[in-house]
Write a structure and sequence with these properties.
Layout (H helix, E strand, L loop, with lengths): L1 E9 L5 E10 L3 E6 L6 H8 L7 E6 L2 E2 L4 H5 L2 E4 L11 H11 L4 H14 L15 H13 L5 E5 L7 H16 L3 E5 L3 H7 L2 E6 L2 E6 L1 H7 L6 H8 L4
Parallel strand pairs: 3-8, 3-9, 6-7, 7-8
Antiparallel strand pairs: 1-2, 1-4, 4-5, 9-10
Helix pairs in contact: 3-5, 4-5
Length: 241
Amino acid sequence: MIEINHVSKSFHGKHNAIDKLNLMIPDGKIVGFLGPNGAGKSTTIKMMTGILPIDEGTIKLNGIDIVKQPLEAKKIFGLVPDQPDMFLRLKGIEYLNFIADIFNVPTDLRKERIEYFTKQFSIYEALEDYIQTYSHGMRQKIIVTGVLIHDPAIWILDEPLTGLDPKSAYILKEMMRDHADKGNTVFFSSHGLEVVEQLCDVVAIINKGKLIFYGNMDELRSQYQSDQSLENVFLELTSDE
């Protein structure tokens, strides 16, 4: 569970990028996080994961405060950022072992997981190559594998399907569903509205740093008296942009 309580964030003393945001991400659900460019999605995710400081309010992950207990909180989530261009001078296998070392994944277990996930994502044969030689899609796959290798309870995924081939995207979506069905938390930010509509149990829509809707698709259509697609409702909700 992720609990965001009365959280605000501003930059350079200007207007709040995030304005008194309250959001609860439950266990056992895939929650889609939507908003137009500049709405505050990435800022929210960076505060959730301890990358950015919080100006006001609290964020707890499975009851652990990300500010007061950052190391404990960071042990229980895995983050796929919106840009996979990290650790480019490492080989794929070096990166995965580095992540496994950080989270104290036993040797036998890490070997098993590395082989399984990289074969699922068709990058097993590229593990001895440097990440800087990977395509964007391959970099995305190695980052996702790094998240999966320590089996965190909370997945925080910022545009995780970008650059993935159809087979790998399908596999990741199945993994997300399975992870949530086991009672874990999946927080999924995406611009792909059709994917969110098909995959997510709950949708959170943010605009100008404020939460403007939180609920399932039936509640969204009921609230706005619409049988339209998520894309059409989203465009109407954010039309002032």
